[in-house]
Design a protein that fits this description.
heterodimer; A: Rossmann fold; eight-stranded mixed β-sheet; about 35% helix; about 15% strand; B: alpha+beta; Ubiquitin-like (UB roll); five-stranded mixed β-sheet; 7 helices; 11 strands
Chain lengths: ~300, ~250
C-alpha cells in the first residue's frame, strides 16, 4: 500500500455521488466509506443498496442523498437485484435499445445483509459470474435496528442480543470469514479495505469494477454508536483494527492472496479494544486469549500470502 | 450562461467553461489522458478533440479541454473523422510507449489494436507521454515545482533540476498518484521512500515513530508540514496512530 500524504487528497475526484446532508450519526465510518467508494466508482454506475443504515440515513422521503442511479432492495435480494440490473443492461445493449456506455453495477449491503440474510443471493450471483461489484460495509452488528449481533460480530463484543453480564461474555462465536467465502467462489477479485486507508480503499473499488466478472470488497466501517466509542476516534479505530491484526488488509486476485500492507509486528490488541465500550467487560486474560487467536489468524494469512 | 449544443443536445454552461466540462456535465464521454479537475487544462494528449461549428458557420477540429464554450456553438464528439483522428493520436502515443497497459486499454477503446508506426525501444520503457499532469500537480497543487520539463522537441523529457536530487521535493507522492500511465513509481522499503521516474531516481529517508518504531513519513515531508502548520517538530515525532492521547 502506498502511504500517500498531504496533497494527494486534493487530487481525488471532487464529484460527490453520496451527497452531504444525509442523516448518518456523527463519526460514521460507513458514510465515509460509501462516499469514498462513490468517488472511486465515478458517475457511470448503478447501485443496488440493501436495507440497512445507509439506506435509512440517505433516503428519507422526500429527500435523497444519492446523485447516481440508486435502488433500495430488501436484505435478502441485493445481489439478485444487482445481477438482474447487470443482465438487463447487457441484454438491452445487445438489442440496441440503449447505447453501450460501459455502465457498471454495484451492490452494497451491511454485514447482516451480506453474511446472514443476503448470503444465499450473493452466493448465487457470484456463482453465475455476473459482472458486478459487491461491497460489504461491515460494522459488525445490525446497527440500524439497535445493535443486534450478526455473524460478523467479533468474539466478546457486547450487543443488545449478546449482552455482557455475570453469565455471558457477550458474543460467544467468532467472526465469520466472509472474504474467504467469496474467495471460495473462484471469483476474479476479492479484497478487504478500510476508509482509514482511503487511497487503498479507492484503488480496491476501482480494481473491483475493472475486472471482468464478479468482485467482492469487504470494508470495515467503524460505528461509534454500536461500538460505544467516541466519534472522533473512528478513523483511528479503523487504523488500529488493521495495525493490531484484527482486520488485515489484503487482496485476492484470481485466487492469489496478497497482503496490501504487512503490519507486523502487530500492535497489542489492548490498543484497539480499550477504546471501545463493547469490549469494556473483557478481563485481561480474555483479551489475551482473543489476541492469541488474532495473531494465529494473521500468521495463517501471511502464510497464504507468501 | 452560454447556450450551445453537444451531439444535438441543448445545454447551458457558464461563461469561460470548457467544452469538455460541458460535455461531461451531460454524461457524454470524451476520452482524455491529460485532463484532471484539480489542475489547469493543458492540451497535451489531444485525445479530447471534437468537431465544432461556430455560429458564423466555421467548422474545424479543436481540443475540447482548451476550447471555451461559445453562444450557438454546435459540437460533435463522435464523427468518423474524429474517430480516425483519435485513433491516429493513440497509435502515435502507443509507438512512444508500446508497453503501457493504460495506453493499450485506451487504444482498444478507440478501436486501434496496434500501432503502424515504428515503436520506441522497449528497453527505454519509460511509459511517460509528457502529459505534464505531474509537473502541473507539483506546481499548482503542491506549490513546489520540484519537477519540470527539460529540453525541447523530441528530446523533451520530465526531470528534476539537473537530474540531481531535488531540494524542493517533499516526497508527497502527488506526481505518482496523478500519473495516468504509471510512469512514476513510489515504494517505501527499509526506511527509505524511493521514486523511480523515467529519467531519474530519488530516495528519501523515512522517519521512525518515537513510540511504536514504525516508519511513517519522509523526514522532509515532516519538516514541510511543521513549517506549514506552525506545529513544533516534536508533534510529528510519533505516527498518527500513536499521536493523540487515547481516551474513552
Amino acid at each position: 500500500m502506498k502511504n500517500l500524504g498531504i496533497y494527494a487528497a486534493r487530487l481525488t475526484p471532487p464529484v460527490e455521488g453520496f451527497a452531504p446532508g444525509h442523516r448518518a450519526c456523527i463519526g460514521c465510518g460507513e458514510a465515509l466509506a460509501v462516499r469514498l467508494a462513490c468517488k472511486a466508482a465515478g458517475e457511470n454506475i448503478i447501485i443496488a443498496n440493501a436495507t440497512g443504515c445507509m439506506e435509512v440515513v440517505s433516503s428519507q422521503l422526500p429527500a435523497s442523498a444519492w446523485r447516481i442511479p440508486w435502488i433500495h432492495t430488501l436484505f435478502e435480494n441485493t445481489a439478485a437485484v444487482a445481477s438482474g440490473v447487470e443482465a438487463a443492461l447487457k441484454a438491452m445493449t445487445r438489442k440496441g435499445k440503449i447505447a453501450d456506455r460501459g455502465t457498471k453495477v454495484i451492490a452494497m449491503a451491511g454485514d447482516g445483509g451480506t453474511s446472514d440474510i443476503g448470503l444465499q443471493a450473493l452466493s448465487g450471483a457470484l456463482e453465475r459470474y455476473h459482472d458486478f461489484l459487491y461491497i460489504c460495509f461491515d460494522n459488525e452488528a445490525y446497527m440500524n435496528t439497535g445493535i443486534q449481533r450478526s455473524s460478523a460480530t467479533p468474539f466478546g463484543a457486547s450487543t443488545t442480543t449478546s449482552p455482557a453480564g455475570k453469565k455471558s461474555i457477550g458474543q460467544k462465536t467468532w467472526k465469520k470469514n466472509m472474504p474467504a467465502i467469496a474467495v471460495a467462489h473462484n471469483i476474479p477479485y476479492v479484497a478487504t479495505a478500510s476508509p482509514s486507508y482511503p487511497f487503498d480503499m479507492m484503488d480496491k473499488v476501482k480494481k473491483g469494477l475493472a475486472v471482468n466478472g464478479p468482485a467482492y470488497v469487504h470494508i470495515l466501517s467503524v460505528c461509534p454508536t454500536g461500538w460505544r466509542s467516541t466519534p472522533d476516534l473512528s478513523v483511528r479505530l479503523g487504523r488500529l483494527a488493521v495495525e493490531t491484526g484484527v482486520f488485515p488488509l489484503y487482496e485476492v486476485e484470481d485466487g492469489k492472496y496478497k497482503l496490501s500492507m504487512d503490519v507486523s509486528p502487530l500492535r497489542p490488541l489492548k490498543d484497539y479494544m480499550s477504546i471501545q465500550g463493547r469490549f469494556r467487560h473483557l478481563s485481561e486474560g480474555m483479551v489475551k486469549k482473543i489476541e492469541d487467536r488474532v495473531r494465529k489468524d494473521y500468521e495463517q494469512l501471511k502464510e497464504r500470502c507468501a | 450562461m452560454v447556450k450551445l449544443t453537444i451531439d444535438g443536445r441543448q445545454t447551458e454552461a457558464k461563461e469561460g467553461a470548457m467544452v469538455l466540462d460541458a460535455a461531461r456535465a451531460l454524461n457524454i464521454y470524451i476520452p482524455t489522458l491529460c485532463a484532471h479537475e484539480s489542475v489547469s487544462a493543458y492540451g497535451a494528449c489531444r485525445l479530447c478533440t471534437v468537431d465544432i461549428t461556430t455560429r458564423s458557420g466555421r467548422n474545424r477540429m479543436v481540443t475540447s479541454c482548451l476550447y471555451p464554450v461559445e453562444e450557438g456553438l454546435a459540437v460533435k464528439t463522435t464523427t468518423e473523422k474524429i474517430a480516425a483522428h483519435r485513433r491516429m493520436l493513440i497509435q502515435l502515443l502507443l509507438a512512444r510507449c508500446p508497453e503501457s497497459p493504460e495506453l493499450k486499454a485506451m487504444a482498444k477503446k478507440l478501436g486501434a489494436d496496434d500501432t503502424p508506426f515504428p515503436k520506441e525501444d522497449p528497453a527505454k520503457n519509460h511509459n511517460c507521454i509528457l502529459c505534464a499532469l505531474c509537473t502541473r500537480a507539483c506546481d499548482e497543487v503542491v506549490g513546489q515545482s520540484a519537477i519540470s520539463f527539460v529540453n525541447r522537441g523530441v528530446a523533451r523529457e520530465m526531470a528534476i533540476p539537473f537530474y540531481n536530487d531535488s531540494d524542493a521535493c517533499i516526497a508527497c507522492g502527488s506526481c505518482f498518484y496523478i500519473c495516468p500511465t504509471n510512469a512514476i513509481q513510489m515504494t517505501d522499503k527499509n526506511g527509505k521512500r524511493r521514486f523511480v521516474m523515467p529519467h531519474n531516481t530519488m530516495e528519501f529517508e523515512l522517519a521512525q515513530c518515537a513510540q511504536c518504531g514504525r516508519y511513517h513519513l519522509p523526514k522532509r515531508q515532516i519538516a514541510w508540514m511543521a513549517k506549514k502548520s506552525g506545529q513544533p517538530l516534536e508533534f510529528f515525532a510519533r505516527c498518527i496512530s500513536c499521536r493523540e492521547e487515547v481516551r474513552l
